[in-house]
Design brief:
Number of strands of chain A: 15
Number of domains of chain A: 2
Largest interface: A-B, 24 and 28 residues
Helix content of chain B: 40-55%
Number of helices of chain A: 15
Strand content of chain A: 15-25%
Helix content of chain A: 40-55%
Largest sheet of chain B: 3 strands, antiparallel
Strand order of the largest sheet of chain B: 1-2-3
Number of strands of chain B: 3
CATH topology of chain B: Sufe protein. Chain: A
Structural class of chain A: alpha/beta
Oligomer: heterodimer
CATH superfamily of the largest domain in chain A: Type I PLP-dependent aspartate aminotransferase-like (Major domain)
Structural class of chain B: alpha+beta
CATH topology of the largest domain in chain A: Aspartate Aminotransferase, domain 2
Chain lengths: ~375, ~130
Amino acid sequence: MQVYLDNNATTPLDPEVVEEMLKHFRDDFGNASSIHSYGQRARAAVEEARQKVAALIGAQPREIVFTSGGTEADNTALRGIATWHRKKGNHIITNTIEHPAVLRTCQQLEKEGFQVTYVPVDNQGIVRLEDLRKAIKPQTILISVMHVNNEVGTIQPVDEIARIARENKILFHTDAVQSVGKIKVDVKALRVDLLTLSGHKIHGPKGVGALYVRQGTRMNPLLYGGSHERNRRAGTENVPGIVGLGKACELAAGCLDDFQGRVRFLRDKLETEILRRIPDIVLNGNPNFRAPHVSNITFRYIEGEGLLVSLDFKGIAVSTGAACSSGSVEPSHVLTAMGRNSELASGAIRFSLSRMNIEKEVDYLLETLPGIIDRMREMSPLYRAAK
Amino acid sequence: MKCRRFTERPSEREILYSDKVKQLIQELPNRGKLEAATHTSRVENPVCGDITQLYFRVENDSVVESRFQTYGCPAAIAASAAVTLLCRDHSVKECLELTTDTLLKYLGGLPAHKLHGAELAIDALRSALRPS
């Protein structure tokens, strides 16, 4: 049996998305900027997709800028705001458990003369609001805090952070690639200024994403060239990709209840049964403020990569909380920021579900996992020493 | 147009672990503690935290039984298992002549960033069987 439980890495394409995209690979190949009928058809498809993306997050279509994915949207938000507002201030606030698309961009901005404060999180992965408030300076121009963490699924209090930002006249960006299409995201209710989303996390294609930019927000583009995307993102539109993203958003909008109901039930079953059947495990993340599709569990006395490979032999795909490379283990920066030591981070496995998973798959995991854990602990010197 | 020839199947080019390593991980031969061991060692890689314990029962200068326990990545686990297989029924002298290169050949290679797994296993082997 093949069981894919690594949906935070990427999701399988929905067949309906593929169908929509194929038309634009095969027949409607026009450049959306062309005036002739080929171009007109491509333009109509792009604008229809824009409406679908906007509808999913409660935005106006004109507030959606298509990008090549989540990373480009994050880069555009951070660099675009930082460089435009530099005269007002040079200070940015983010936090320690962001995706590298935000963290590395902030590190680069530091090299270019900006100051960045990385606010810590508590041991369940929630940004400490008191520290965030204290970090605000007169020069602060932007706060960027992700909506749902990709590794542990913790939901950040973005509405509260947006309120703090607004009170201090600071712009607020959230990377929402792990929340859009999985929990309800309404940019007007959250009152964010910028929001990142990605196609391939919601059964859409890779290589396409979008940045929501609240109307009236002034910023520089990341890429310069033609006047595409109302001068906010130069480059010929990736029409099949954008069409795929639009379709994925349309389908996701109809599946939010499924996530809250069926997917949450599967995740809870997976987690409860693992806790019941296997001793010496630690749950990572906040059990109350967590997206319904993620479970991050440390299996003590075992190194995660060995467990990942053993599960892969049985047809089950998951991911680990640490990467061992060149003789040094690099524990996940998220688990480290949450105060997990190297051993606890090394034994962490992330199970991430999607609306395409079924109960039989979770049952198969639950049948398979305890035996593998027993075998691996049997040969772990740490387990013997602890017992 | 000239047909592009691949020297290997595209799917085989980026594979992380060899079939031998996968087989060892799947079967984990000789895993667990050997109570009757005459020679043991415990070696730790202080940087990545991998730990390997090897157990050998030596009779008449020959390894008659060998087992391992490893906490670490698949490379370290497979290398330790391989060492226990390669030493069985060999003299202590022959075992001590086993090199990282020979072990890597037996494993069908390891990814460049995982070579330390083989080094750990060889260190543990020498630590256990080296005459005191």
